[in-house]
Specification:
Helix content: over 70%
Structural class: mainly alpha
Number of helices: 8
Largest sheet: none
Radius of gyration: 76 Å
Number of domains: 2
Low-confidence stretches: 3-12, 65-71
Distance between the termini: 86 Å
Order of helices and strands: HHHHHHHH
Shape: rod-shaped
């Protein structure tokens, strides 16, 4: 219900029966025929359904001619007046009976109108309640709309936050995949270094074995050289003794001594040649041993470098 409707209902509720009767009496005293419209215009307001029964009761309290005037048209009222003036015939009585019947119908209509007026007031009250509820509903709808907008803003914020988290997760996953790839590559390098280390260790073992063999050979060569030198010394001593004996026998067997001396010289040269060959072989063995020791040093350096590299990667 709007403000105009509420003001009209309040104004109509303020019009009392005394005010309606007073307005009817005023109109009648002024020579104005009391009607519903005239009464409402005099009061400035008022429900027709409320004015009509009061106006009908006022007509009932007046003479029959006035009653006829209240429900008939002006021409009918004049005709009725002429008939009443000429005679009180049975036709007039029938007409009055018809008027009474019409008045009864009018009363019934008035009651129905009053009931409709009451229903209208109840409907207006219900409309007021509905308007109030509608206002509350509008207020609630506004609050809900505001809440929806807030939730939409919050949803947008959460969606943006979720997108940020998704991007961060994707970045973290990419970094993790890169780290895993680097770890895999590092593990492969470690495995390769381990393989190289095993190979170097095998080479070192082989070199050590070769060095042991070479040392054994060197020891054998040294022993052989020592034995050769001892044999040479023994041969020289024997040759000197033999020369001495030959010198003593030189005069006796010069020719035989010369032959023997020649033979000894030949034997000595051959023996010296053998000693020279053995010395050369011994020098070759020394060179081989030196080369082997150089290789062993190189392998040792490589092994130390591989171990240092492996420790650095592990750290």
């Amino acid at each position: 219900m709007n403000k105009g409707t509420k003001m009209q209902a309040n104004t109509r509720a303020k019009v009392t029966n005394e005010q309606i009767n007073h307005a009817i009496e005023q109109l009648n005293s002024e020579g104005v025929r009391p009607t519903i419209r005239a009464v409402r215009e005099r009061l400035g307001s008022g429900s027709p359904n409320r004015i009509q029964p009061i106006l009908a009761a006022w007509h009932d309290n007046n003479k029959p001619a006035e009653t006829a005037q209240a429900v008939l048209s002006d021409n009918a009222q004049q005709t009725l007046a002429d008939l009443l003036a000429r005679e009180r015939s049975s036709a007039v009585a029938a007409k009055l009976e018809e008027i009474t019947e019409l008045k009864a119908q009018l009363d019934e209509i008035t009651q129905t109108g009053q009931q409709l007026e009451d229903d209208n007031e109840r409907l207006e009250s219900l409309n007021a309640q509905l308007d109030e509820q509608r206002g509350e509903a509008i207020t609630l709808a506004g609050a809900r709309q505001q809440r929806i907008e807030q939730l939409e803003v919050e949803q947008t914020r959460l969606q943006n936050h979720a997108q940020d988290l998704t991007q961060k997760l994707a970045t973290a996953q990419a970094q993790l995949a890169m780290q895993q790839q680097q770890n895999q590559q590092q593990q492969q390098r470690i495995d390769q270094l381990a393989t190289d280390f095993d190979a170097a260790r095998q080479q070192t073992n082989a070199a050590q074995q070769a060095a042991a063999v070479a040392e054994a050979k060197l020891a054998a060569a040294v022993a052989a050289q020592a034995a050769t030198q001892a044999a040479a010394e023994q041969a020289a001593t024997a040759a000197a003794q033999r020369i001495e004996r030959l010198e003593q026998q030189l005069e006796q067997a010069q020719k035989r001594a010369d032959d023997a001396q020649s033979q000894r010289n030949t034997d000595a040269q051959a023996h010296i040649k053998q000693i020279t060959q053995r010395d050369e072989q011994l020098n070759v063995e020394h060179k081989k041993n030196a080369e082997l020791m150089t290789k062993l040093d190189e392998l040792s350096d490589k092994l130390k470098a591989a171990e240092s590299k492996t420790k650095t990667k592990g750290a």
